[in-house]
Specification:
Strand order of the largest sheet: 2-1-3-4
Shape: elongated
Structural class: alpha/beta
Largest sheet: 4 strands, mixed
Radius of gyration: 27 Å
Helix content: 55-70%
Distance between the termini: 32 Å
Order of helices and strands: HEHEHHEEHH
Number of helices: 6
Length: about 280
């Protein structure tokens, strides 16, 4: 920083201190929201497990019925539900999930249902058709919206508008690890239902009225809504964890820059004092 005055260095230090205060505050806010998001994940699991268990029970004990939700058909058109964030400053959270979906959509006739501002803007800029953009604010999407989305997509699937429905979200592994995930929602398969029902109570003696096929058809949209809500909770927790990590790194970088600038400020001040003493001695 040769040639830079001590005043300019001091201004830069003040600027970095202000930035550090902002990043530290954002880190604390993200940590608070992360705790709430983790609580939502734990609260949503029992309902999802019961639905998973019911579907698994029907598939295992009623093999003589057929359902359009189970039939494999040629894949001509694909629907992707994509969950991203509303804001940036979260490391690679948004870019990772959006790049993964973009790679999956190459060469496919696809429609997306974006949830979150970043997802809406991403697919709009690439002119990929959207089923709806009504859920541009991911923070405002609640459990009721998830079941509404599931019912509308189930109707569209039964009408033949889509041959497969996928959901792309970020799986919360830990505070330091968030992994983009792609799950196929429809058509269902007994193996997938069995995996999802792992750990849920067995219900082999259940009697379904009027019959298992009608109960299955009624449960599937609720089941998909539960998956969507669970994925939304996972994504929210992942976003806050990624933002907390990013802001913690930014705060550490700001501390390092402040220390470096302080050292240069002291050196510049020492050089200025030395020069003034030299000038005084030379003048005398």
């Amino acid at each position: 920083m040769a040639g830079v005055s001590t005043k300019e260095i001091k201004n830069r230090i003040r600027s970095m201190e202000s930035t550090r205060q902002i990043t530290k505050a954002m880190e604390m806010v993200a940590a608070s929201k992360l705790r709430r998001a983790q609580a939502q994940i734990l609260a949503s699991r029992p309902y999802f497990q019961i639905l998973s268990s019911a579907i698994n029970d029907i598939l295992e004990n009623n093999r003589d019925f057929s359902s359009p939700y189970l039939k494999e058909r040629p894949v001509n058109k694909v629907m992707y539900i994509v969950i991203a964030g509303d804001r940036g400053l979260a490391g690679g959270y948004n870019s990772n999930i959006l790049k993964m979906v973009e790679a999956e959509l190459k060469g496919k006739d696809a429609v997306v249902l974006p949830i979150g501002k970043k997802a809406v803007e991403f697919f709009r800029s690439r002119k990929i058709p959207a089923f709806t953009e009504a859920y541009a604010e991911a923070a405002d999407v609640g459990i009721g919206d998830c079941f509404s989305i599931a019912k509308n997509l189930s109707k569209a699937y039964l009408a033949g508008e889509f041959d497969e429905i996928h959901i792309a979200y970020t799986n919360f592994v830990s505070v330091l690890s968030q992994v983009p995930a792609d799950k196929k929602l429809l058509p269902l398969s007994p193996e997938e239902a069995r995996e999802r029902a792992e750990g849920a109570p067995r219900r082999s003696d259940t009697i379904y009225e009027p019959d298992a096929e009608e109960v299955f058809a009624a449960i599937v949209p609720e089941f998909l809504g539960g998956i969507l809500y669970g994925a939304l909770c996972e994504s929210r927790a992942s976003e806050q964890a990624a933002r907390r990590t990013a802001m913690d790194a930014a705060t550490s970088n700001a501390d390092e820059m402040i220390a470096d600038l302080s050292l240069k400020f002291n050196r510049a001040r020492q050089a200025a004092i030395t020069q003034e003493i030299t000038e005084i001695v030379a003048g005398s």
